Protein 1
Amino acid sequence: MAVALNVSTFLPADRSIFKVIVVFLIPLVTLLFVAHGNLGTVIKKPRLGDIPLIIIVVVLDMGYSLAIGGLLHYVLGLPTQANAAYGETMDFGFFALVFVQLFGEELFKTNMLLGILLLLFRRSGNRKSAVVIATFVTLLIFGLAHFAAYDSLAQILLIQGLGSVICLFAYLKTKNMLVTYAAHLIIDLIPFGLNALGAVSGGAAAALILL
């Protein structure tokens, strides 16, 4: 159920208030229902010791995305596409919606991972294989959920999908979704912020990250 109810990410690739609220509320309600109202199962108080991990995740994630994006576009000649949000007006309302939507996306991903993991572990009793399979399936579905935004199968599978393993590893290590949320926020806000400030052109900012 935790997986089935998280269909909100497959909505059209606009950052409308309606979509953002749906992307946020459906995973949140799902988690509250499954965890009997106890958000502490996945959301914990941040620790100072989490900061180095967050920084490492951001650097690795952005480096991976740039490398794979370059490989797909310049070496293999496959189409790649920047986040459609670069065409939007980046005002206070835009960034407020980013904060809410990314929280919903992390809930979506975490719910799906835990739901699949629990199902597999109950059937097999093998925790290691359950973690590996649940991680792979989560990455695959999370990548495909971005198809409306990027319309490039290779990109969403390798960058939005497989690339998310770095953030997912941070959750598996800390059992705290706020760590992955913080990393995801920084990864998106760096190019968005540079573009909004006019420090670089929209195209150059988009090239910093394809998330």
Note: The chain has nine helices and no strands.
Protein 2
Amino acid sequence: MPLSRKSIFCRPFWVAACLLLGSCAASEQDGGSEAVAVVAQQPQSVPQQLRVEVVGSSRAEISAELHPEAAGLVRSVRFSAGDFVRKGQPLVELDSRRERLSVEAAEVRLREASQLLSRYRRIEGTGAISQSQIEAGETALASARVELEQAKTALSDRTVTAPFSGHIGLTQIDVGDRIAPDTIIAQLDRRQTLFVDFPAPETAFGRLGPGSAVTVSPFSEPDRMIEAKVIATDSTISDEQRTYVVRTAIDNSDDTLRPGMSFRVLFVDSGRMLPSVPEEAIVWGGDGSYLWVVREGAAKRLPVTIAARREGSALVEAELAGDDLVIVEGVQKVREGQSVRLVKPRQEEVQDIEVDSADPADAEPGPEA
């Protein structure tokens, strides 16, 4: 059938478009016949370092606020701030005249009850006394003994003693003051060993626990580094801060540190080995992050999980083979299965320019461009 002038005029353009579309489709199907120049390098294995640097506070191994057991008038204060006191040493004495009289009266009643029961025992077999009278005498003797112990306890409560050996702090109590059980006499600390408590992030829970070693440095002596051992951790993790409390112990036998001091705490753990790649090699897509690696001269997409970042590099979790090369430059030009051509990274040439120390105005003008 003869063609019209219009069909003859349009046919060359239709053929060219078909040829162009066909070549593009073939290029997309085979991933591109031309190799793409890329820069690739082999990833290095580095330890996944965990670093915790926080501020902790110290407390004494044993610490107590001393209170009197009873109210009364202070008769004597037998210590000074900073003294080292022994366990059981008297510290504060209250007026105890009534309590001493109570002890003496209880002792008299105890002697009377004991003498009465002795008389009952001597005539027990004569029939002049009943068994119930003897039992009543035994009860009276036991009651007198209890009264005496109570009186002695009340008397001992009039003297405040050290519950353990340690250093005692400042006091606001003076002779003549009237104090009550809620009055704080002083703080007593056993500080030969100090506990340094600090908050640790939840991510360190499995690697920072009893037996671990940390380095602590007092803010009063920044250059002093002390190795401390973790002895315990808190049983719960804070819902708000997502941290848990770690307790370490340090030796303070030289008595140069004090409870309540602030410490800089440092914990570093190498952990497992992970591949390290430059951050620019990581590509983000709709399904997460991935890398382009070179296998058998072609590009292959490899999903990765970023475990940590460190100074321009990323530690990743990926199924990398020992001979895989990670594409660092050209990641936006490659497709799955596309042939790649490895090239060396471009290095900027730096030229040293010598500057004459003479006045520039004295220099001869150069030729005009």
Note: Confidence is low (pLDDT under 50) at residues 1-32, 348-369.
Protein 3
Amino acid sequence: MFHTILFATDASGAAERALVYLEHLARIEDAKVWVFHAYEVPQRYNSVEGFDKLVEQYRKVAQAAVDDSVAVLREAGIEVEGEIVEGAAAPAILEAAKRHDADLIVMGTRGPSSVAEMLLGSVSTQVLRYAPCPVLVIP
């Protein structure tokens, strides 16, 4: 039923818990997994000396988050690829799901951390609302 699964990770504890479910599901479904992470560099520092180093550090941290999940899944015998993108998380996840023709998106959620987040919506809420496929959200 699921041939391609997009795993959106932010390297949080919730994402690590979701990885356990993802591994089991991907094995049962014999699905290919795309491990995906979007990151945003704070542009308010773009005129500060060393901004290029900051951008590179963000990229390295994002790549490490993806590489860790890819390694766990490969060790479990799952076909997996990784991808990082600079940009806002929810739109980037939705675009990646379309680009990779995902049958399912798996992601962790920490729940709303503030009243503003409850009103505006968290990343998982935005993905749930606009996803082109089913979404499995693990608390």
Note: The first strand starts at residue 4 and ends at 8.
Protein 4
Amino acid sequence: MQRRVRFLVALCAGALALASEAGANTITQNVSWTVDRAGTSTKYREVAYGDSIYAGYHGSLSDVAVWSGANVQGDYASNYWGTDVEIIRRCKSGAVASDIYNNKIVAEKSYMQTTNTRIVTFEMCGNDGLQARSNFAGQSGTCNYGPLNTALSNCTTYLQNAMSFINANASSGTKLKIVANLYYPGYNGDNHLSNCTDATTGQKVNLRTTFLPYLARMNWRACNFANTYGFKCADNFANFMGADYDRNGDGQIDSDGLKYVQGESESAYVTRITSTLYSTIIDANTHFVNASTSYDYIQSDDTHPTYDGGTIWVGLFGGTGTGSAPPDFTPSQFVNGKNPVWNQFGHERMGWALSTYNPPTP
């Protein structure tokens, strides 16, 4: 496979490490990137709001991945439409759902109000979950589930608020509104007992089996609200956490089996994820595309998705980066609507999942 060529606009200086996404620190990491297709001056816009996932965070304050999931989605759109596509990523690494809603989606609504906007997408709640997980993992004595319940409640509130606000404010020409749900970073790392003890059983609890139902409820609500508010839902959990072949012999590909099903109740979905198909869930550090081949979807921080290609400068302590390049792949390289690396990196898989809902024409 021919190596990708990147054209980055800004020069890179040093990089500073962000200590922990799960902490209270946040940093703005925006990108404006144009897929510049030869032979056309027509340009449509995709707007993506979110935290470090859409930001393309890779451990640096000053630069981020060019080809995060939102950019990958825009590259697919350019291929479908035969036009330039401008991807506006308005992101705040480390931000909880309320912060993304208030300070990105609401405060920066103008980006989705331009008349050439065709796609608006967002993701949130990951940091609500990470902060609650860190709190719980650090507890001793009697386990306090309050922070986990608060994270779920806040996620529920702001998912709905975001969809309602986008519906009211996105350009009338917008053809796709889509939310991305959560994969489970650190899935294997959480497979151990807590330091605290459950008040009812008097026993320590397994962190993974404690956290997974909360994540499942967040994901069900994201996709269920999407149906209610006229959005689509890209199921990152299924695409990251399930193998792309039938490991348990139940007649369905594991990643398909884990997907949200419209009309299924929340309790039924949670049971399917935490019990019925629990054995098919695999840490995304080893995403099996077949029985003998796996790819690492998670960076060494055990949190953020892997990506292909280069990075773009966004400022020494965060800010906005701007750049452009020809399409990532030529039309002849796509097979069945997938680019050659669609399942080899976390961000590529996310971008492909988002792109499956792209309108065929702008």
Note: Residues 1-23 have pLDDT under 50 and may be disordered.
